[in-house]
Amino acid sequence: MKTARELGLIFEGVMAPGPENAITDVPGVAVGHRSLSAEGIHTGVTAIVPHPGDIFRRKPRAAVEVINGFGKSAGLIQVAELGTIETPILLTNTFGVAACTEALIRRAIAANPAIGRKTSTVNGLVFECNDGSISDIQAMAVTPADACAALDDARTGEVEQGAVGAGSGMTAFGFKAGIGTASRRLRIAKRDFTLGTLVLANFGAAGDLILPDGRRPDPRRPASPERGSVIVVMATDLPLGDRQLQRVAKRGGAGLARLGAFWGNGSGDICLCFTTADPVDHEPASPITAQDRLSDAFIDTAFRAAAETTQEAVLNALCMAPATPGRNGRLYPALADWLQENPLQ
To answer: What is the DSSP pairing of strand 41-49 with strand 175-176?
Structure first.
């Protein structure tokens, strides 16, 4: 399968992608997958690891923006309150949240036996979308072992996209979708930074998708209510405070809107942004600490990158996923096939 750019979709943004055009262009960030495929089962787990160290001990600053809260994620309240994350981020299906949370907690305790006894508990961070159109979600196929396998698979560099990991059974705009990613290079005050985004795309009504060139692909499926979800995870090495990180996360909504999404009543649309710059120590050396922070006068560059990468990441999730039959017998076609059958004139 090919990416959106390889299939000829042109993005009019003024910012260039990183070398992999992926969230892993942010130094230290790694991504891994565990895909499950069996009779009636097409699901899995995707792991995003912010840095290679002990995340509980060195907590990346983060913020979350809930665009529409029809979702069952775990750990968002503490992120919103404290402005940090304490574990890797796992993506899965709706009924896999508990298994993934257990895996994160057990791995954190194994690395830090004082958790919950001599020090604080740990906040496992898990996001979900409902892949029940293709996979039998009632089978509750995802286990803690699968979550651990995704974490163990996490690598820097190229990211596998499409119907893989948590994206195995996801659909968007009437097409097969899944995992997608993109990145942008940022130049601020003669310094180079990166913002990368990974999405779990499972949203959008059939017929609503708008391509960068203005075309509206037809999945040849009857229009249906917008009941899906999308998880947007952004990473950057820009030094940002948690208030700024939430403002950047909010701009993921602009990228979704460019695609034709309107965040329907039954859609869980959630964006999280974290920075690898200036992590917070679990046991600070001093009660008062200094923090580097980008001036708000320069934050528009990050806003633009957030919108551009979200839009492109969703299109990559669509373009990299093959046609797949749903549990109801309907075929979820591949956007790549539609693009080949309907070349731009």
So the answer is: unpaired
269 is catalytic: yes
Of the candidates 151, 302, 131, 125, the one whose C-alpha atom is nearest the C-alpha of residue 203 is: 131
* pLDDT of amino acid 121: 98
User: Catalytic one among 25, 146, 208, 269?
Assistant: 269
Mean pLDDT, the chain, integer: 95
Catalytic (active site) residue 73: no
Task: Tokens 């009543």: give the residue.
Answer: 265
- Beta strands (DSSP E) in the chain are 30-38, 41-49, 58-69, 89-93, 125-129, 171-172, 175-176, 179-188, 191-202, 229-236, 268-281, 324-325, 331-332
Measured CA to CA, the distance from residue 257 to residue 332 in angstroms comes to: 22
d(CA 177, CA 167): 7
| Confidence at residue 14, expressed as pLDDT on a 0 to 100 scale | 75
- Name the catalytic one among 146, 183, 229, 242: 229
End-to-end CA distance of the chain: 23
Residue 283 DSSP class? S
Catalytic site residue 229? yes
If you count DSSP H runs as helices and E runs as strands, how many of each does the chain have, helices first?
A: 7, 13
**Which residues fall within 8 angstroms of residue 82, CB to CB, at 6 or more apart?**
none
Q: What is the pLDDT of residues 39-93, one digit of tens each?
A: 999 999 999 999 999 999 999 999 999 999 999 999 999 999 999 999 999 999 9
Polymer length in residues for the chain: 345
What confidence score (pLDDT) does residue 330 get? Answer: 85
Angle between helical axes of 97-111 and 144-152 (0-180°, round to 10): 60
Residue 155: helix, strand or coil by DSSP? strand
Catalytic residue among 267, 278, 292, 337: 267
In the block, residue with structure tokens 């119907």: 163
Tell me: the pLDDT tens digits for 133-172? 999 999 999 999 999 999 999 999 999 999 999 999 999 9
Fill in the DSSP letter of residue 268: E
**Residues in the chain where the model's pLDDT stays below 50:** none
153/145 Cα distance (integer angstroms): 12
